[in-house]
Design a protein that fits this description.
CATH topology of the largest domain: Jelly Rolls
Number of domains: 2
Strand content: 25-35%
Number of helices: 6
């Protein structure tokens, strides 16, 4: 009865708006720059998290009637979203069983995992099950079905636990213009009912989860960005368990760090050798761990787009201006941010080497 009264009186909405205000404190953290661009992007980031949160915890929140939506995309970004990825996300309950149906498509890499937790609760999205696209059983048309359950099933099976509450799909493209994405649907097994109309109690709970998601997600990745400061302009290997606990793919080895460049400087990232792997890329992000706008700027290179060095390695250059060299990555008006390098399914992890140089010297080297 209290929820009904609060919704009718407007109290629920007022408390939701007040809770959203608290998330703004993450934008004002002292280690985050106070310039116009960083602040403007920070507050836009919160609105993007709000949009994602509304999809996740309101529109697609019912685990009895799940549906896939995009948790990161061109204008909604979380935790160093991969510009070469297409993500899909669905809410589930470990007490139910589900089936995912789809066609494989031609994306270079494809994986589906189940998770528990959430940025709105414990700041983690820990894995509870995983299936690699290369292990899927497909029919002659590339179609598949995957059963999600606590008990193992024959054929394509994805494990869940009692605490499982989400499914995350990753499709990684070498070249989006030539590869075809998978087509996916999810439904609960053994149910032919229709969802009930929204209740006051459900609305109140969902809006509380949305507000906690916005603040929790902003806090998790603001903490990450702060922790990268001692490694600015370097890409050292770090604790992979931390990245996996935040929802990382178990086939991926991540390097996260920060970067900062003066107007006349360039960051040179050299990978001396490319091991046998299924995918790699380097991306440049803003301070809030959002990939820079890859629709209009070259902020990412992978094995398809990067030009190899004569010795087989790869050298990439991050700078504010085009040095006229291969594999330039644009800072797109940013002086400072974060970055991510990843190996996917690599037989070994060759650590990237970095150095900061004067941009003029690189240009002179090219002319010499």
């Amino acid at each position: 009865m209290a929820a009904k009264d609060d919704v009718i009186s407007g109290k629920t909405w007022e408390e939701f708006c007040d809770a959203l205000k608290r998330a703004g404190q993450q934008v004002l953290r002292p280690e985050a720059a106070a310039d116009e661009l960083t602040r403007a992007e920070g507050y836009r980031y919160l609105t993007r998290l709000l949009r994602i949160g509304l999809e996740m915890h309101l529109e697609f929140s019912d685990p009895d009637f799940p549906g896939f939506f995009l948790p990161s995309h061109e204008t909604g970004k979380i935790g160093a979203d991969n510009p070469d990825n297409r993500y899909a996300f669905a809410k589930i309950s470990g007490n139910n069983e589900y089936v995912i149906r789809g066609t494989r498509g031609t994306a270079s890499y494809f994986s589906i995992g189940t998770q528990k937790g959430g940025y709105e609760t414990n700041g983690k999205m820990e894995p509870t099950g995983f299936i690699d696209g290369k292990d899927l059983i497909l029919d002659s048309e590339g179609r598949f079905e995957i059963v999600l359950s606590q008990t193992k099933r024959p054929g394509n099976w994805l494990g869940i636990e009692a605490a499982s509450n989400a499914v995350i799909v990753r499709q990684t493209f070498l070249d989006r213009s030539t590869e075809r994405p998978a087509q996916l649907s999810i439904e609960r097994l053994n149910s032919d009912a229709a969802p009930a109309p929204i209740s006051a109690e459900r609305l109140q709970n969902n809006l509380n989860n949305v507000a906690r998601f916005v603040e929790g997600t902003a806090t998790v990745f603001a903490n990450w960005a702060q922790s990268f400061i001692p490694h600015t302009n370097a890409l050292p290997p770090q604790d992979q368990a931390r990245f996996q606990a935040a929802g990382g793919d178990p086939n991926i080895f991540y390097y996260h760090s920060a970067w900062e460049l003066a107007d006349d400087e360039a960051l040179v990232v050299h990978v001396p050798r490319i091991p046998d792997c299924r995918f790699w890329n380097l991306q440049i992000d803003n301070w809030w761990m959002e990939s820079l706008d890859y629709r209009y700027h070259r902020i990412c290179h992978n094995q398809n787009s990067a030009q190899r060095d004569a010795d087989g390695g790869v050298t990439m250059v991050v700078s504010h201006r085009d040095p006229g060299l291969a594999n330039w990555l644009e800072t797109a008006g940013h002086k400072r941010g974060t970055m991510c390098f990843r190996w996917v399914g690599a037989k070994e992890h060759v650590h990237p080497q970095t150095r900061v140089v004067k941009l003029k010297s690189l240009i002179e080297e090219k002319r010499a």
